[in-house]
Amino acid sequence: MRLRTTTQRQQSRRYPGLVVGAVAVLALTACTGSAEDAADDDGGDSTPVAAAGSNDEEGDMVTIGFSAPAADHGWMGAITENVRDLAEQYPDIDLQIAEGTNDVNLQISQVETFINDEVDAIVLLPFDGAAMTPIALEAMEAGIPVINVDREFDDPNAARVTVLGDNYGMGVSAGQYMCEQFGDKPDAVIAEIAGIDSLPLTQDRSQGFEDALAECDLEVSNRVAADFTVEGGEEEAAKLLQAAPKIDGLWNHDDDQGVGVLAAIENAGRDEFVMVGGAGSANAMREIQDDSGVLKATVIYPSTQGADGVKLARLLLQQKAMSDLDEVEVPRTIQLYAPVVTSDNVDQYIDSAFES
């Protein structure tokens, strides 16, 4: 199934400014039913079957290309693994998954291949959003809708749909948790172990944390930045612990680097503070369940974003929409929530968590 004819694709190349408008006004038919509208269970096969008219009901076969960075990080590995799982869930999706790469030129080549193969849609988590913008625009101009995941392009016209986590919201959620713990202790020492400081996502997380702490008159007293790796987390946490003989609350931006942070904390014999993690790994959640160490909470940064992007591409191509909304088209931008996971609600999240 193609959204646009060959003639339309040729016109888009001649008049690239018309492309986004043409894609945006596609007639996406809203779903006409829900699970509650399904026929009564007749007691037969217990295999779950999509309700008639639901978004999960099998539709026309669609071919979707997917490209993401290398799985050199637990969260990134889960991104691609969650996409692979959709192949079994949706027999009407022909998934073309490119090998993960941190080479921008190779990722550009992967997208060029998708364009030449005339896939129906491309779901792209760029290694570098700015560098991938021109090739994404080229795909859009060829009549192939692009779903941009996590790292935004420089030009909003380079994607029909953008699926984002909430980096600023992560910081806000972590800061609000600290306020709940220490809002009545104006002298509380709050520490922060950030990710890579040059990245906008790290800056957004830190700004959200700072803004939320300000609401309860707290501020970050000690801060270091690591590099999202176990080794970097351990090294920078050791420095912070030496510099801060007393800590009340510590927020670590990333649960993968948190493995090293926790190792440094154990080596230092420190247990006087409450720690909050970031991203929501399964091993962090198991620590929270065990409740025997400093880690008491983590803030989710969903590793479902790639899979969400593929599912949205499928809806777009099959002329469906999000059935729980009155809107008859797939939204332009979707930002996922950043909830705090504690021992009270960890069972809700652990099954979909990634392994660090």
Automatic annotation (TrEMBL):
How far does the signal peptide extend, from start to end residue?
A: 1-35
What InterPro entries does the database record attribute to this sequence? Answer: Peripla_BP_I (IPR028082), SBP_2_dom (IPR025997)
Span of domain Periplasmic binding protein: 64-320
On whether Signal is a keyword of this UniProt record, the answer is: yes
Which PANTHER family did the record assign?
D-ALLOSE-BINDING PERIPLASMIC PROTEIN-RELATED
Quote the protein name from its UniProt record: Substrate-binding domain-containing protein
**Which species is the source of this protein?**
Nocardioides astragali
Where in or outside the cell is it found?
Answer: Cell envelope
What are the leading ranks of the lineage?
A: Bacteria, Bacillati, Actinomycetota, Actinomycetes, Propionibacteriales
Q: Does the keyword Ubl conjugation apply?
A: no
UniProt lists the family membership as follows: Belongs to the bacterial solute-binding protein 2 family.
| The organism's place on the tree of life at top rank | Bacteria
UniProt keywords (A-Z) are: Signal
Q: Where is this region: Disordered?
A: 35-58
